[in-house]
Amino acid sequence: MKHKPKKSLGQNFLKSQDALRKIVAAGEIARGDVVLEIGPGKGALTSKLLGSSGKVIAIEKDANLYEFLKTKFQKEIQSGKLILVNDDILNFNTRTYNLKPSTYKIIANIPYNITGAILKKFLTNEVQPSTMVLMLQKEVGERILGRGKNPSTPLRVKESILSISVKAYGVPSLVAKVPKRYFSPAPKVDSVVVKIEQISRQIFEKEGISEPKFWEIVKTGFSHKRKVLRSNLKTLTSPRQDLWEKLGNRRAEDLTLKEWISLAR
């Protein structure tokens, strides 16, 4: 099939069989698992997911690719093993497909231009997936992993509102680096595969913290990155001397998730 990739949809098709195998392996897919794939493209990853899972729900926004996939996977669609949907993933309603919390996994080479929106939609969803394995732009993947020494970030890295947003709901880890030459067309940057597992709202429930209030504090803390944290937080609360002394001259990016939880509590 000849298909001109659309920049507007962030289409870069993965052609490395090794990378595809690593993505599927990271998903630890069982025969009864339901897998949600975002942007299946020409179906390279879809084929491998169908061979491992109980059912695949693939959401493809591009009408031409949708028609191509409908023909390519005609048997799988007829058997009910593949549900192919022509829509924008940001319109996806988990309830429509009878998905329940932690009963499905998201495994996908996602459009990089909506990475943040996808993470927010599913991590904060009422019906969260149990695991997400995503191909991401390298820089975004490193920001998600945040502080610590990771294979992709040998130097100590600061936290960001993105890393805190992911870590509040799950445990992210690096699966693999994927050079840009493994895609067609090749993007301008390298990519990484990141796995987010143990997705839940346990932190908020366990610590007795209001989820909306927690995010109000975090967003306010990161509102002016160059300012020290206590300056940003003064807009929310009256200074508590012991807390202010503990924060000192630290910025939002210097706090770990554990410290944000403590601060919110």
CATH class designation of the largest domain = Alpha Beta
Number of helices: 12
- Structural class label: alpha/beta
CATH topological fold name of the largest domain: Rossmann fold
CATH architecture label of the largest domain: 3-Layer(aba) Sandwich
User: How many beta-strand segments?
Assistant: 9
Query: Spans of 5+ residues with little confidence (pLDDT < 50)?
Result: 3-11, 149-155
Distance between the termini: 56 Å
Tell the overall outline.
elongated
Major sheet characteristics? 7 strands, mixed
Helix-strand string: EHEHEHHEEHEHHEEEHHHHH
- The CATH superfamily of the largest domain turns out to be Vaccinia Virus protein VP39
Features:
elongated, two-stranded antiparallel ribbon, Rossmann fold, Helicase, Ruva Protein, domain 3, seven-stranded mixed beta sheet, alpha/beta, about 260 residues, about 35% helix, 9 strands, 2 domains, disordered N terminus
Model description:
The model is unreliable at 3-11 and 149-155 (pLDDT under 50). With 265 residues, this protein is an alpha/beta fold. The protein folds into 2 domains: 7-200, Rossmann fold (3-Layer(aba) Sandwich); 204-264, rRNA adenine dimethylase, C-terminal domain (Helicase, Ruva Protein, domain 3). The chain has helices at 17-27, 44-50, 63-72, 74-79, 115-123, 138-145, 161-167, 202-207, 211-221, 229-233, 241-247, 257-264; strands at residues 13-14, 34-38, 55-60, 82-86, 104-109, 131-137, 171-178, 183-184, 191-197. A 7-stranded mixed sheet has the order 4-3-2-5-6-9-7.
